[in-house]
Structure formats: structure tokens, C-alpha cells
Specification:
The chain is 26% helix and 25% strand. It has 3 domains: 59 residues, OB fold (Dihydrolipoamide Acetyltransferase, E2P), CATH 2.40.50; 154 residues, Rossmann fold (3-Layer(aba) Sandwich), CATH 3.40.50.300; 67 residues, Orthogonal Bundle (Ribonucleotide Reductase Protein R1, domain 1), CATH 1.10.40.50. It has a 6-stranded mixed beta sheet, sandwiched between helices. A 5-stranded mixed beta barrel has the order 1-2-3-5-4. Strand 4 and strand 5 form a beta hairpin. It is globular and about 65 Å long. The chain is an alpha/beta fold.
Length: 320
């Protein structure tokens, strides 16, 4: 005997919809938080193509002990991640991207560059923090590697999260995060868990609760989670495991040079109007490239190589 399926209720009238923010997502399900009282409801979007991401403001309606998301409010910005197979959006409505690096392990300049390009394309401010100031001489070497980014205008903050108390760098960091929604990123071993647990002492407990709510009691790690760091829910930290390989497929290769401040500064003097800054003669960007050992290089050779690598990747994606 076949089981009868209960029909999915039709869309709720607009006046009956509630406003909420997506604070965690796993598969087709997410947690939506009421902005007034902080209560959370397990929801899923209506229709297979209506995807939501952490940070989205949505209009939803209750259906029994769950909810259906009927609409997503216009986003201020949207970030994408890249896996082996595809690019997928994962966070929206972010005020700041905090890239946490460390003296050890040595950071990947390619990962850093992709994060900065993604933030630049989305119009999101960036703060770079370099942890393990007490690890010498590795810290000084890492600090020197970040000199081109400081010259570009990026804020780079020194940290020592292993110190017993709150050092000046951490106090400065807390002040910069205040009243903002910050996506924190960092590769394994840089101290991201230490930072998250200091700013949000209940983070581990909240993660367990979210996992159970989204996966019917089975523990699972959500890919991205929105935490409030204060009772008034004015300051948020968005934790995303690992160092996301940012998806840049939505960026055309011709736009790339405009998203790299050191290269962008030397635009306007090229011989050809459609210069790709790769091999054309009379290129003002290529003329500004100097060896990495030059302390005040307008464009460092390593940054220019990154531009070439990413340009090639974006060009190949355009042909598929």
C-alpha cells in the first residue's frame, strides 16, 4: 500500500511572513534567527533553486515545527568558495573580512591574494592579522613578506594570541570588530580557534546545538556559522572552517587588474587600450614590476606572478 504524501503548503501571504537572518546552513536546511528575540527556527527554502547562505536576511513562514523561506532580501554583498567541482556562494551581508595568518606555519600568498581579490570584488573591507609575534625570527620574516600589502593600504595587525592576557594587538582587534559582521578566515595552525573561543566563549557549545538542530540529532560540522559576540547582538563573527579557496569565476579576467591595488595604481599608461598586462609592449603595469628583493618595489615580482596565474585560470573558465 503506497503512503500518501502531504502536499507542500502554498506560499504564505506577504503580511504573514516573518523577517529573520540565516545563522547556519547545512544542505537544504538552515537556522533562521528572529532579529528581535534571538529565537531560532529550522527552515528550508521553497523550491530547489532558491538557495540561501549564512548572513542572508529572509522572509519565512512557520509550518508546524519548521519554517519555509519564501524570499531572500537583496544582499549587500556575496562571497563564493571554490571546491574541486564548482563555485558556490557561502556568506552574505559581511562588513569585514579578517584574514588571520601566523609566523608559523608559513602562509600561502596565493590564498591571501584570492581572499583579498574576492573581498575587493564584493566591496568588503579587509583586515590582515599576523599572529605569533613571540615566534622569532619567523614573525619578522612573515611581517616583511606582508610589506607590499601594507603599502597597498591594507591594515596589518600584529597579534600574540598565546599570551595569558589581552595584548595591545588583541585589544585593537576587538575595537575594530565592534558593531560589524566579520568573516574570519585562516589556515590550520594560525590560532583561529583560540581567537574564536576568546571572542565567543560559548562557540563550541553553540556549534553542537546548531549541528543537532540541522541534522536531527546527528553531529555534523556546519561549513559557516554566524555568532554574536555581545548580548545586544551588534557585533558578529562568522566562522568558516579552514582557509576558503575563494571562488573567483564570477570575475572576468579583464576585471582582475582593477581588483589588485598595486597593479591598479599603474593603469592608464599602456600603449594598447585592451592591454592584458601579460606580454604586450609598452605596458605601464609590467614596467612597474621589480624583483622581490627590492624593498620598495611598486609591484613585486611575486604579486605579478599571482596576477598571471589567476588571469590564466579565469580565462580558461571563460572557455568552458
Amino acid at each position: 500500500m503506497s503512503r500518501r504524501r502531504h502536499p507542500t503548503p502554498g506560499p504564505a501571504p506577504a503580511h504573514a511572513l516573518r523577517l529573520g537572518r540565516v545563522v547556519a546552513a547545512h544542505g537544504r536546511h538552515c537556522l533562521v534567527e528572529d532579529p528581535d528575540n534571538g529565537e531560532q527556527m529550522r527552515c528550508h527554502p521553497r523550491g530547489k533553486r532558491n538557495e540561501v547562505v549564512v548572513g542572508d536576511l529572509v522572509r519565512w513562514a512557520p509550518t508546524g515545527d519548521e519554517g519555509i523561506i519564501e524570499a531572500v532580501e537583496p544582499r549587500r554583498n556575496l562571497l563564493h568558495r571554490q571546491d574541486e567541482w564548482r563555485t558556490k556562494s557561502f556568506a552574505a551581508n559581511i562588513d569585514l573580512v579578517l584574514v588571520l595568518l601566523a609566523a608559523d606555519p608559513e602562509f600561502s600568498e596565493s590564498q591571501l591574494a584570492r581572499a583579498l581579490i574576492a573581498a575587493e570584488a564584493a566591496g568588503i573591507d579587509v583586515l590582515i592579522a599576523l599572529n605569533k609575534r613571540d615566534v622569532q625570527p619567523a614573525f619578522d620574516r612573515a611581517w616583511a613578506r606582508l610589506a607590499p600589502y601594507r603599502r597597498m593600504g591594507y591594515d596589518v595587525l600584529p597579534l600574540c594570541l598565546r599570551s595569558a592576557g589581552t595584548d595591545a594587538g588583541e585589544a585593537d582587534l576587538r575595537a575594530r570588530l565592534k558593531d560589524r559582521a566579520t568573516l574570519v578566515l585562516g589556515p590550520s595552525g594560525v590560532g583561529k580557534s583560540t581567537l574564536v573561543n576568546r571572542l565567543i566563549p560559548k562557540a563550541q557549545a553553540e556549534t553542537g546545538e546548531i549541528s543537532r538542530a540541522l541534522n536531527s540529532g546527528r553531529h555534523t560540522t556546519t561549513s559557516t556559522t554566524w555568532y554574536w559576540t555581545d548580548e545586544a547582538r551588534h557585533t558578529a563573527l562568522i566562522d568558516s572552517p579552514g582557509f576558503q579557496e575563494f571562488g573567483l569565476a564570477h570575475i572576468g579576467p579583464e576585471r582582475l587588474v582593477h581588483l589588485m591595488p598595486d597593479l591598479r595604481e599603474h593603469l592608464g599608461g599602456c600603449r594598447f587600450y585592451n592591454c592584458t598586462h601579460r606580454q604586450e609592449p609598452g605596458c605601464s603595469v609590467r614596467a612597474a614590476v621589480q624583483d622581490d628583493t627590492h624593498p620598495e618595489a611598486p609591484i613585486s615580482a611575486s604579486r605579478y606572478r599571482l596576477y598571471g596565474d589567476i588571469f590564466e585560470q579565469l580565462s580558461r573558465q571563460r572557455t568552458y
